[in-house]
Design goal:
Order of helices and strands: HH
Strand content: under 5%
Oligomer: single chain
Number of helices: 2
Number of strands: 0
Distance between the termini: 36 Å
Largest sheet: none
Radius of gyration: 19 Å
Shape: elongated
């Protein structure tokens, strides 16, 4: 294989890997009844990402 083929395979694999972890967004119309601080929101987003299967 020449260098262009290897590069193309690596780029394709990287793009497919990046797209494989996407998930649909749910409850986009849901409003929050309580005001949360920026730190609370950041922590909730990180915890949701960590617990994602």
């Amino acid at each position: 294989m020449n260098k262009k083929s290897v590069f193309a395979l690596v780029v394709t694999a990287a793009l497919l890997t990046g797209c494989a972890r996407t998930a649909p967004i749910h409850n986009v119309n849901q409003t929050l009844s309580q005001r949360y601080s920026d730190n609370q929101m950041k922590t909730a987003i990180i915890e949701a990402g960590i617990s994602r299967k």
